[in-house]
Structure formats: C-alpha cells, structure tokens
Specification:
This protein is an all-alpha fold. It has 28 helices and two strands. InterPro entries: EXOC6/Sec15 (IPR007225), EXOC6/Sec15_C (IPR046361), EXOC6/Sec15_C_dom1 (IPR042045), EXOC6_Sec15_N (IPR048359), EXOC6PINT-1/Sec15/Tip20_C_dom2 (IPR042044).
Length: 807
C-alpha cells in the first residue's frame, strides 16, 4: 500500500510532461467532487469531446485515492470498533430479556385494554352522534327562527308595515344569512333581501309622490283657511274698536257691563279659531287637521329611507321637489285677471310655508331652518315682483285695495309662523300714493256725477231711516231732537251724496293704510282727506257755482249746502281720527281751517251778487227822488219801500235754510251795497244839486233800513243786529253830517274818528258842494229861523274850503 501510495505521488511528476491537460482536469474533477458540486459540466464536456474514457479514468483514479484514505481511517479506528462490537455482544442478552418482558407486558395490556378500547370507541361514536344531533337541532332552530322572520317579514309587507318588514330583513341579514346551513336557502335570501328593500323603497316613494300631489291642494285650502281666520280676527278687532268708541261716546253711562260684554264676545270669537289644546287647528305633524293636513306619508317615507341608509338622498329629493312645487306656484296665469286669481296665488304660497313650518318643527332633520329661510326669501322676492308688476298695471283703486287687504292678511298669517314680511309691506307702502291718486280720481268722477244730478231743491225725508241715513250718519243735525216726518232738510241731495263719497274715501284710505306695518297713519289719511276736500270737492263746487248757478234760489241752496258741509267736514276729520285710532282731542289739535273756503266764499259771493243785482233793480227808483223837495217825505221814498218788501221776503225765506252766520254775512253785504248805492246816487252826475228836504227824506229811508236791521234781533243777537246797522254806516254818517248844525266838526280828528270814520273827505267835499244853494236855502231854512242859517252855511262853507285846500 505504501508502494502504491508512493507511485501515486511520483506518477504526476513523471507524466507531467506527457499529459498535463489530463492532470489539470483530474484536479478540477477532484475539487468539484470534494466540494459536492455538480459534475454535469464534466460529463457534457467528456461526451462532447468524444473521450468519456478519460472521465471514467479520472473518476476511478479519484476513487482509488479515496480508498487509501478509507483504509487509513479504518486502520486508525479498528480497535475501537472491536471494543464496540464486544459491548454490543454483552448487551444482547439483556436485550433479549427486556424483549420478553415487554412482550409479556404487552400481552397483559392487550388483554386488559381491549374492553376499554371497545367502550372508548362506543363513547366516541356516541359523542359524535350527539354532537351531530345537537348541531342538527341548532340548525333546525335557526331555520325555524329564520322561517319565522321570513313569515313575519311577509306579513308586515302584506300589511304595509314597511319599517317592521325592514327590521325583520335586517335581522335575517345580520343574524342568519351567514349561518344558514342550506346553500339554496342562502342564495334565495341573498337574492330576495335586495328585492324586498327595492320593493319597499318603490312603495314609500310612490306614497311620497302621491303626498306631494295631495299637499298642493291641501296647502291652498290651508292657506285660505289661515288667511280667513286672520280676516275674522281682524274683523273682531274692528268690531271691538267700534264698540269701544261707542262706549267712549257714551261715557256718561255705566261702563262695567260694556267691558264685560266685550270680553265675552272676544272669548267666543277666539274659541272657534283655537283648538281645545290651544293650538292653531291646522293639525299636527302626523295626524289629520281640519283639511286633512297629514304629514304621515312624508315622515313614513323619511323614516324608511333612514332605515335603508338613504337619508341624505331622500332629504335632497324632498327639498328639490318642494322647491319645484314652489316655483310652479309662482306662475301667474295671463289668461285670468290677477284680481280673480290673487287669492288662490297667495293662499297657495301661505299654505306651502305653513306646511314647511310644521315640518321644520316636527320633522327632525328632514329640512333645515336655513333651507326654509332660503325658500321664503325666494318667495318674498317673487311675490314682490308680481305685486310691483300688477300694481303698475292697475288703474282702479278698489282693485288695488282688495289685493292690498289680502296681502296684508297674508303678512299677518305668516308672521304668526315667524316669517318676516317687511318686504311685502314695503311694496304696499310704496304704492300708497298711487292708490290715493286713483281713489281721488274715482271720487272726482263720483262727486261730479253727484253735483250734476243736483236740482238745487231742499231734500225731503219721509221716514226716520232716511233721516238717520242722510243726517245722523254724518252728524249734520243741529239738534238732538228727531224732527217730525215728512222732514224738509235745509240742504239738497248733493250734501249726503258727497258725504257718502268722502266717508267712503276715508274708510278706503284707512283700510289701505291700516295693517300695513305703519302704526300711526292718521297724518297720511288727513293729508289725502285735505286734498280730497280742498282740491277735488272744493274745485267741483266752484265749477258748479260758476257754471250752473243762475238764480237766487239756486245760489241760496248752494250757500246752505256749504254751511252744512262745514259741519260735515268736522265729522270727516273726527271719523278719520276714530278709524285711525287717534283720540279726538289729539285730532282737534291739528285742525286746519275749513277746506271748502273757496267754494263757500264763492257761494256767498254768488248769492250776494245775485241779491245785489235784484236790489239794483229797485235802487233804480232813486231816479224818481225829488232832490229839490219843498218838504221832506215822512214815509220814505218809493225805492226804499220796494227794497224793504224784498228784504223782508228774502229774510223770511232765507232763514229757513241758511244758517244765521251765512244770512248775516249776506244781508250785511246787501245792506252795505244799498248804502253804497245811496252814497253813489248823491255823488253821481245825475244829481246836480239837492236840498235839505231831500236829505231828510234819505234820512227817513236809512231809518227804515235801520229799523229793518233792528227787527232782525229776534233772528240775530243784538250784536249781529248792530253789525247790520254798521253796513249802513257810510250813508248814515254822510246824512248826519249834511244835517249837522256844525258840519265843520268833520275836520276835528277826534269827532271825525268817533262819528264819521267811514267817510272819505273827497266824497264829503263833492256832496257838500251839491248842497250849496244860491238862494240861501241850502240847509232848508224855514221863515223865522232864517237868522240861524248863517252859522250853518258858514260852517259848511268853511268845511268845503278846508277840504278843497286839503285836496
């Protein structure tokens, strides 16, 4: 072995020169095998080169090299191996004894454990059967519960109890679907559960759609009912105010019973509007109201969609549909006049927001306050634009008033639900001037028609109701005593007709101004009332006086009418104050002068002018006066007798219809005119000269006229009778001066101011010159009294001379 080993060591050095490549390959192969690497490359290379023998040779060489190593290892451990074999041999007997012992134990164990194993197998089999039975029972119970839930769900679906059906479906899905042992049943449930939910969603959506259609009709009726209740409440307030005003007017009576009666009626009126529980009678969130105001379908649909997890989608769907409904409610038909459709238009909107307010308060989060406010702002903007457009087209005051009243009722109704209505009231206030202009125009036409129909005759009233309707209703009576019938009033039919027109104007104006957001509007009503009286009625009366009055009786009737209208104007302002809720004492503070002054003055001037024309006809008889009479007349001249007869007849007729102040002013004007006519006759060119006898005759004429004035003391006061006399002052003072023994006293300022203050010195000078007589009979001296004439003549000459110097 050692020689072989030496040979292996020497051979490479000898063959290195012959086959170095094979040696190198052999080394690589040995290294690869030692490293446990793959020999595939060597095999492929050997077969590729067609020299597998070389590879085999190398492998054999490697095996021989390893055999020597094995031999060395075996040689090194041979002794230990022998010792180990000896130890094994010594253990063999022990192993045999152990084997026999184990065999005996096994036999005993098998004999003992056999029955136990049989029992154990029976137990395990029974346990398995029990487990299977229990599992089957639990699955059966689960299926029974599932069947019950399915049956209950079908029952609720058939009864329309969708929420309970959904709860059953949710229980099936969460508790039983994953635990269902039957795959067929599980597939059926997985298919049917979405179908049931879709079915429920379709049904509640249909109910909700039907509710959307129905609620539009309900909203219109609801709005009409709410606005009607607001109108009834307003009417009760008006009735209470009327009774309060009546109670104030009868303040001398006991007020206790009146107060109790007012309270009782108020309670009776409110009991019909409010329900027993104090609510507004429109129904609650889920029940039926007076008009079927039922929100149950809506809340049911909302609840179902919440259960389905579709809450946000339903809220959006609800808001969009209600917004579309509101937009359609804004449409104003061009085929129907707005006057006929305005109540339906506003009632629909009112009902819409009453419903929304109820939903906001009872519907949870279905709609937010912000969304309702946005809808209301849109509605207010649209209503304002509609009102602006419609008001701009209207040319009838009554139409505008009707719409305004309904809009104000709409505002009162919706303000109860917290909606701001100031913008609507601003639109109404904006058209206040237009309404009053239209109202003034209507009244102008009515007054013109009433005046055109006047026959200038005193009004005959045959029944007490006529007296109440035409006199008492306008407080035109001068006494609280009801006259006997038939009663002839001092005024014509024009007065009550015009009073009715003015009263209607006041009531319409107050109706427009009230309930419009403005608490104190009396000044506005008073302003337009002043315009009606001073511009419309006054101008119409002036036109009537200037165009249609042609006789004394007509002028007297118009003057009488004016006096009655003066009392009526006091009533108009009191009536306006009462309707405006202003105390009369405050209204009296702002009273202005009589607004029909121009017409009254024109009527009195017309009457005075016609009377003067009549008197002028009698005064032409002054031409028949003998200005150089030999002796004075004792019974007055012819003209004054005619004038006296006419004046007495005139007064007896006029005092039946003309008030004393008017009669006094007219008669004073006529007497003043007579005085001017007398003075004018003395100044006129037709009278060249006159003597004292003629002056004494004129003095008798003036005394007759003064006597006529004194005779009116029964009709007038003493002061008024004296004022009648002052109308004759110029003629009286001139005659007194001409008959005075000292006419030069006229030059004394004190005496002149006291006795001749109405005389003009130029007139005195002219008349005095005509009294001069070359025969010294200028002052009507008689016989033996000639000695006294010189001082009078001298005084008169002095007066004339001084007056000429002054002139």
């Amino acid at each position: 072995m050692l020689s072989a080993k030496v040979r292996r060591k020497i051979a490479p050095s000898n063959g290195e020169t012959d086959n170095s490549a094979d040696k190198q390959e052999q080394l690589l192969l040995s290294a690869t095998i030692c490293n446990g690497e793959d020999l595939g490359p060597f095999v492929r290379k050997a077969f590729a080169s067609g020299k597998p023998e070389t590879l085999l040779h190398n492998l054999r060489h490697f095996a021989r090299s390893k055999e020597s190593e094995i031999e060395e290892v075996c040689k090194a451990h041979y002794q230990d191996f022998i010792l180990a074999v000896d130890d094994l041999r010594s253990l063999l007997s022990d192993v045999d004894s152990l084997k026999s012992s184990l065999s005996d134990s096994n036999s005993k164990l098998q004999s003992v454990a056999g029955p136990l194993l049989t029992s154990l197998d029976s137990y395990l089999e029974a346990q398995t059967v029990s487990h299977n039975v229990n599992l089957a029972l639990s699955l059966i119970f689960s299926c029974i519960k599932l069947s019950e839930l399915c049956s209950r769900s079908n029952y609720h679906l058939s009864r329309g109890n969708f929420y309970m059906a959904l709860k059953c479906v949710d229980s099936i899905e969460t508790e039983f679907l994953d635990k269902t042992p039957s795959s067929t049943l599980k597939r059926m449930l997985e298919k049917k559960i979405p179908e049931i939910r879709s079915h429920i969603e379709r049904n509640v959506s249909k109910e909700f759609g039907d509710w959307l259609v129905e609620i539009r009709v309900v909203s219109r009726n609801l709005g009409q009912l709410a606005i009607g209740q607001a109108s009834a409440a307003r009417q009760r307030e008006e009735d209470l105010r009327i009774k309060q005003r009546q109670a104030e007017e009868q303040s001398r009576l006991s007020l206790r019973d009146c107060v109790y009666a007012l309270q009782e009626e108020e309670e009776d009126g409110l009991s019909g509007v409010m329900g027993d529980d104090g609510k507004d009678g429109f129904g609650n969130g889920g029940g039926n109201g007076l008009l079927g105001f039922d929100l149950t379908p809506l809340y049911r649909a909302y609840h179902i969609h919440q259960t389905l997890g579709l809450e946000d989608r339903f809220k959006q769907y609800y808001f969009e549909n209600r917004k579309l409904q509101l937009t359609s409610d804004f449409q104003v038909s061009s085929m129907t006049p707005f006057l006929e459709s305005h109540q339906t238009f506003f009632a629909q909107i009112a009902g819409f927001f009453i419903v929304e307010d109820q939903i906001l308060r009872t519907g949870g989060d279905l709609i937010s306050r912000m969304e309702v406010e946005n809808l209301w702002e849109t509605a207010v903007s649209k209503m304002c634009s509609v009102l602006e457009d419609q008001f701009s087209r209207m040319q009838t005051a009554n139409h505008l008033l009707l719409i305004k009243d309904y809009v104000s009722l709409l505002g009162v109704t919706l303000r109860r639900y917290g909606y701001p209505v100031d913008a609507l009231l601003d639109v109404l206030s904006k058209h206040r001037d237009k309404y009053h202009e239209l109202l003034l125009s209507d009244c102008r036409k009515q007054i013109a028609e009433a005046l055109a129909a006047d026959k200038f005759e005193q009004m005959l009233m045959k029944k007490e109701y006529e007296y109440s309707m035409n006199v008492l209703s306008f407080q035109l009576q001068t006494s609280d005593i009801v006259p006997a019938f038939p009663y002839v009033a001092p005024f014509s039919t024009t007065v009550p007709d015009c009073c009715r027109i003015v009263r209607s104007f006041i009531e319409d104006s107050v109706s427009f101004m009230s309930h419009g957001g403005q608490l104190e509007f009396f000044d506005v009503v008073k302003k337009y009332l002043d315009r009606l009286l001073s511009e419309v009625l006054d101008e119409a009366l002036l036109k009537l006086i200037n165009a249609s009055v042609h006789g004394v009786s007509q002028a007297m009737q118009v003057a009488a009418n004016m006096a009655v209208l003066e009392r009526a104007c006091d009533f108009f302002f009191r009536h306006a104050a009462q309707l405006s809720g202003i105390p009369l004492r405050m209204a009296e503070r702002g009273r202005r002068q009589f607004p029909l002054n121009n017409a009254r003055d024109a009527a009195e001037e017309m009457l005075s002018g016609l009377l003067k024309q009549k008197v002028d006809g009698f005064m032409t008889l002054l031409e028949n006066v003998n200005w150089m009479a030999d002796e004075p007349t004792q019974s007055g001249n012819e003209y004054v007798n005619e004038v006296m007869i006419y004046l007495e007849t005139l007064v007896s007729t006029a005092q039946q219809i003309l008030p004393v102040p008017v009669l006094k002013r007219v008669m004073q004007d006529v007497l003043s005119h007579i005085s001017e006519m007398i003075v004018g006759a003395l100044l006129g060119d037709s009278v060249k000269r006159f003597n004292v006898n003629a002056i004494m005759g004129i003095d008798v004429d003036i005394r007759l006229l003064e006597s006529f004035a004194d005779n009116q003391a029964a009709l007038l006061s003493d002061g008024d009778a004296n004022q009648f006399k002052t109308a004759l002052a110029e003629a009286r003072q001139l005659i007194n001066l001409l008959l005075s023994n000292h006419p030069e006293n006229f030059l004394n300022p004190v005496i002149r101011e006291r006795s001749y203050n109405t005389l003009d010195y130029r007139k005195v000078m002219t008349v005095s010159e005509k009294l001069r007589d070359p025969s010294d009979r200028l002052f009507g001296t008689f016989g033996s009294r000639a000695a006294r004439q010189n001082p009078k003549k001298k005084s008169l000459d002095t007066l004339i001379k001084r007056l000429k110097d002054a002139n």
